[in-house]
Design brief:
This protein has helices spanning about 1-10, 15-20, 25-35, 40-55, 55-65. With about 70 residues, it is an all-alpha fold.
């Protein structure tokens, strides 16, 4: 289970859920990660969720060239 995996990794179960979601990340989110512009799992997860409701917003973020962080 994700809870057992999280315990084995010393992470919260939410981390495993967020990481698992990235396996199905849309290309725009994958491109942000591949370009080194976003490496944070939670930020990438939130970008996936945003893409599901507003893909244009994620596309706009990918086009502006900025590094994306939670700060």
């Amino acid at each position: 289970t994700r809870k057992a995996i999280a315990a084995g990794l010393g992470k919260a179960p939410s981390f495993v859920t967020e990481l698992a979601e990235l396996a199905n990340a849309p290309e725009a989110v994958r491109a942000l990660h591949a370009a080194g512009r976003c490496a944070d799992v939670r930020s990438l997860y939130r970008l996936c969720k945003l893409h599901a409701v507003n893909p244009r917003a994620v596309q706009a973020l990918s086009e502006d060239g900025a590094v994306l962080t939670r700060e």
